[in-house]
Amino acid sequence: MNSTALDRRLVALDFDGCIALGSNAKIRFAKEKWGVELAVEQTAEDVSPLGPQRYREMMDAVGRRTGEYELAPHCRESLEGLLDKGFCLAVVTSRADYELDAAKYFIAKHKLPIQATDVHNTQRGGKKSVCQQLGAVAFLEDSLWKLVELRGTGVALYFMKQPWNGHEQHKASQLKFIVP
Questions:
Q1: Which of 10, 103, 136, 166 has its Cα between 20 and 30 A from that of 90?
Q2: Residue 179: pLDDT above 60?
Q3: What pLDDT is recorded for position 92?
Q4: Mean pLDDT over all residues of the chain?
């Protein structure tokens, strides 16, 4: 964590699904590897028809190929707007160590205002402890079950509505999470 994170309000963001969109890469991989046609709504782990083993295989392959990912619409402008309002930024991702460099590469390639030292991973674990250690005042995530873990921590929680998490959107709105 850099020293500015200690001095300023920090917003933590998930990488996959909030900054970088990999659903098209997942769709291509499933088609090429298994001949399975995935709809964008089937690219999240909890709704994928691939099953846990094939989903993990897909993510292990696709997670390292962030060159195939797309930058989320309005991402750069939103991050710059947060910086202009006095926030500092950190990424908190569930990625394993072997996938972290690909995420850092994507951020640098797109010239996003996030330093490589402010990209943190949890080795597929929860994000609560990292967000608390960083002193995050807000957390943006596209997976409700990862967001719910932070309830009651004082961190403002923001659920990022995406095509692949439609099954979670109603529940997120019931829990009073902001659904943009």
A1: 166
A2: no
A3: 98
A4: 90
Residues 70-91 have a mean pLDDT of 96
Specify the amino acid at residue 137.
V
Which pair of structure tokens corresponds to residue 72? 């989320």
Reading the block at residue 43, the tokens are 């690219």
Which residue pairs from 28-34 have beta carbons closer than 8 angstroms and sit at least 24 positions apart in sequence? 28/68, 29/58, 29/61, 29/62, 30/58, 33/57, 33/58, 33/61
Both tokens assigned to 39: 């709809």
Q: Which of 135, 56, 53, 40 is nearest to 90 (CA)?
A: 135
- Give the residues across from 70 on adjacent strands: 21
Q: What angle is formed at CA 169 by the lines to CA 60 and CA 38, rounded to 5 degrees?
A: 40
Q: How far is CA 22 from CA 18, 79, 117, in A?
A: 10, 19, 23
Q: How far apart are CA 25 and CA 42, in angstroms?
A: 13
Q: Is the pTM of this model over 0.90?
A: no
Report DSSP state, residue 151. Answer: T
pLDDT digits over 136-177, tens only?
A: 999 999 999 899 899 999 999 999 989 998 888 778 776 666
